[in-house]
Amino acid sequence: MDLKGNVALVTGGATGLGRAICEELLKRGACISICDLDSDAGENACDELGKAFGKEKVLFCHCDVTDYVQYEDAFQTTLAEFDNIDIVINNAEIMNDKFWELEVDVNLNGAIRGTLLALQFLGKDKGGKGGMLINIGSAASVKPQISTPIYTATKHAILGLSKACGDSYHFNHTGVKVLAICVGHLDTGASSHSNRFTSSVHEKAWQLDMKGIIPQKTDHVAKGIISVLKEANTGSIWLISNGKAPKEIPYSVATV
Ligand SMILES: NC(=O)C1=CN([C@@H]2O[C@H](COP(=O)(O)OP(=O)(O)OC[C@H]3O[C@@H](n4cnc5c(N)ncnc54)[C@H](O)[C@@H]3O)[C@@H](O)[C@H]2O)C=CC1
Ligand SMILES: CCCCCC(=O)/C=C/C=C\C/C=C\C/C=C\CCCC(=O)O
């Protein structure tokens, strides 16, 4: 897919999946704004990706998604640098139920802040040109991860947020397509520590959660995300897990 001339703002873009998404966007001709709390990793990613794809195509904005003002500044800086923002990817996260208030503030409130800002900066009803907002969910958005109930709650909420904001009722006003992409386990957890769980019972449950899971390479998932970007309908939910191709999944709720 050709994304030449598009500008994408990616939170948590300094490392992991976020960085892989940035690289895939650059390969397709987009400019990227890496928005991340980690300045060292962010500057490093900016440097390396700038060398590979052109310095003028990559920007790093130090940004803590738990701080609305910093996050808004990142949008302003990106706009000032590239003149437009077409794609916003809410990807920043932590998975640590021990620090559950921070986890909710990053994973859920951060995504809400990013959604409100994307609608404000991109929305046709606000003078923007429309565009796309991608909220990164997890396999834990659709299948409870019993070792981390609070992480699970944040990732379930991503679906409700994306479905409601991505409804065609809103899309007809804003021109902003909203998608949720649920990602299965990645192969980046090697340096992870077990200090993420609220008890030894929860830590033990991680083994159950991981049963049958095939860890995925970040570039496989990043490529999958790019492949669904343009074709997907607003409000749709996609799953990329166990190394398979992306598939659209239904949003099931009990009939009310
Ligand atoms: N790692 C995995 O196995 C899975 C990850 N996911 C989802 O994929 C996405 C990316 O995950 P990973 O690449 O594994 O994450 P990661 O932990 O490798 O990277 C997260 C990035 O977010 C940044 N970040 C953390 N707090 C921030 C804040 N307050 N403000 C701005 N940036 C902040 C970090 O500095 C880091 O660069 C997340 O939304 C995650 O929930 C979903 C399923 C599995
Ligand atoms: C079944 C859904 C899988 C989705 C997982 C997810 O959304 C996010 C995962 C994020 C990080 C996983 C990385 C490492 C695992 C962390 C700790 C394992 C340590 C276990 C131990 O030491 O016993």
Automatic annotation (TrEMBL):
Name the record gives this protein: 15-hydroxyprostaglandin dehydrogenase [NAD(+)]
Enzyme superclass (EC): oxidoreductase
Upper lineage: Eukaryota, Metazoa, Ecdysozoa, Arthropoda, Hexapoda
Organism encoding this protein: Hermetia illucens
Pfam short name (any one): adh_short
Cited InterPro entries: NAD(P)-bd_dom_sf, SDR_fam
Catalytic activity, EC: 1.1.1.141, 1.1.1.232
GO molecular function: 15-hydroxyicosatetraenoate dehydrogenase activity; 15-hydroxyprostaglandin dehydrogenase (NAD+) activity
Record has Oxidoreductase as a keyword: yes
GO cellular component: cytoplasm
Homology family: Belongs to the short-chain dehydrogenases/reductases (SDR) family.
Known role: Catalyzes the NAD-dependent dehydrogenation (oxidation) of a broad array of hydroxylated polyunsaturated fatty acids (mainly eicosanoids and docosanoids, including prostaglandins, lipoxins and resolvins), yielding their corresponding keto (oxo) metabolites. Decreases the levels of the pro-proliferative prostaglandins such as prostaglandin E2 (whose activity is increased in cancer because of an increase in the expression of cyclooxygenase 2) and generates oxo-fatty acid products that can profoundly influence cell function by abrogating pro-inflammatory cytokine expression.
Keywords from the named record: Oxidoreductase
Annotated catalysed reactions: resolvin D2 + NAD(+) = 7-oxoresolvin D2 + NADH + H(+); (15S)-hydroxy-(5Z,8Z,11Z,13E)-eicosatetraenoate + NAD(+) = 15-oxo-(5Z,8Z,11Z,13E)-eicosatetraenoate + NADH + H(+); (11R)-hydroxy-(5Z,8Z,12E,14Z)-eicosatetraenoate + NAD(+) = 11-oxo-(5Z,8Z,12E,14Z)-eicosatetraenoate + NADH + H(+); resolvin D1 + NAD(+) = 8-oxoresolvin D1 + NADH + H(+)
